[in-house]
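Feature request disguised as a bug: please show the residue count (462) next to Threonine synthase in the output. Example input:
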Amino acid sequence: MRYISTRGSAPVLSFEEAMLTGLARDGGLYVPETIPTLTADQIAAMQGQSYEDVAFTVMRPFIGDTFTDDEFRDLIAKAYATFGHAARAPMVQLAPNHFLLELFHGPTLAFKDFAMQLIGQMFQLALGRKGERVTIVGATSGDTGSAAIEAFRGLDNVDVFILYPHGRVSDVQRRQMTTPTESNVHALAVDGDFDDCQARLKDMFNDFEFRDGVRLAGVNSINWGRVLAQVVYYFTAATSLGAPLREVSFTVPTGNFGDIFAGYIAKRMGLPIKELVVATNQNDILDRCLKGQGYHKGTVHASISPSMDIQVSSNFERALFDAYDRDGNAVAQLMSELGQGGFDVSQGAMQALQDIYTSGRASEAETTQTITDALATTGELLCPHSAVGVKVAQELRDEATPMITLATAHPAKFPDAVEDATGIRPPLPRRMADLFERDERLTRVANDLEALKTHINGVLNT
Ligand SMILES: Cc1ncc(COP(=O)(O)O)c(C=O)c1O
Ligand SMILES: N[C@@H](CCOP(=O)(O)O)C(=O)O
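Example output, currently without the count:
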C-alpha cells in the first residue's frame, strides 16, 4: 500500500513513512493510493466479533509490511486494553431506529482515544526498532491534545508539544493537558483560536529547516493513521445493526472533518452506508459549503461545543481531492485561494461531495435544548458536541433507515454546558476525580511561528 499527497507533488510513501512524516512536503495530506475493499462475507463475519478483531480486519490492508500480523494484533490489543467498556464503542438506543455510538470510554473521555492510543503504540514500536527520536507537535481545540499527551506521556523516544487556544478549551480539557508530570510533554497556550494553532503547526511542517532539525512528527488527523483507526467503529456499529444486509446512516459532529472522512473510507471499503451527515455547530462553514455556498472563512465564534470551533477544516482537503478526481494541482490551487479567504467548488466536485455527504447545523440554543430533551426522553446525558449530532440527525434522518449518531465526548468534559441544560453536573470518572487538585504546568506563547520555534528549540536543547 502506497500513500500519495493531496497536492500531488510530494514523495510517495509507505504506511510507516506516512505515519511518521505527518504533513506531506508539498503541504498536502497523505491518502492511500487505492482504497481496499472488504467482501460482504468479511463484513458479515464481523457481527459478534470483538472490537479488536474487527480492527485488525479493517486496518490490516492499509499497513503494508510496517508490522507483522502478530505485531499488529498485539498493538491493537494494548491500545484498547485501556478502555473502560468491554465493547470499546457501545451503542444505546435514543428512539426507534436512532442510536448513539458512545465513543468516550477511552482514557481521556473522547473519540480521539480510539486512534491516539493505537498511534502511541505504533510510534513506539516503529521508532524503537529504528532507534529514532521525534518531536511531536499537535494543535488542539481540546480533545486531540489531551488524548495525545495521555498516549505519549513518559515515552522515551518522543517529545510532545501541544498548542491549544488560550481560554477556549474547557477546564477539564485544559487540566488533562496541563497536569501530567512527565517531562516529555508540554502544553502551550497560544494567544489565538484553534485555526491559528493548526496554521502554526502547518507552518512548522512547511519550514523544512525546523522540521528536519527537530525531526517533526504529527498526530493530528494530518496523520493518516488517525483517520484509519477511526474507520473501525463504523464497521462495529453498522454490523451490530445488520450490515451488510441492512443499510445504515451516520451523523457525525464535525470540525476538522477527520471522523466523517473515516466514515467515507468505511463506505468506500464496502460498508453499506446510506447517508453520511456532517453536523456542525454555529461555526457552520462546512454546512454552508456542502449546501453549495462555497468555502469562505468568516469569524470563529466561541461555542458551548468548543472542540468544533473550527473554520479551516483540515481533512476537507482529503474530501476535495476525491471530489476533484484526485487532481493534486486543483487541490493546491483551492488551498492557495483558502489562504486568501476562501474558494468556490466547481459544479462537478460539488455534485460529487453532495453524492456522499449531507449536512446540517445546530445553534447554541438548539444544542442546549437537545441536551435537556435527551435526558428527559432517554435518560442519556449528552456532551454538547454529541448534542449537535443528535439535533441534526433528528432533523435529517429518514425513519426507515437506522441512524447512528456519534457521541464524541463524555458529558463530564463539558460540565458547564451540561449543567446549564439539565441542572446536573456530570462527575468525572473516579480515576480522574482529583483532576482539579493537581498542579498545572503550561506556557503562554504568542500566535507566532518564530516564538513557537524558539520555545520548542529551547526546551529540546535543555
Ligand atoms: C468532542 C469532539 N467532537 C467532534 C469533533 C470533530 O471531529 P473532527 O475534527 O474529526 O471533525 C471534535 C474534534 O475533533 C471533538 O473533540
Ligand atoms: N477537535 C479537535 C481538533 C483537531 O482535530 P484532529 O482530528 O485533526 O486532531 C481537537 O479536539 O483537538
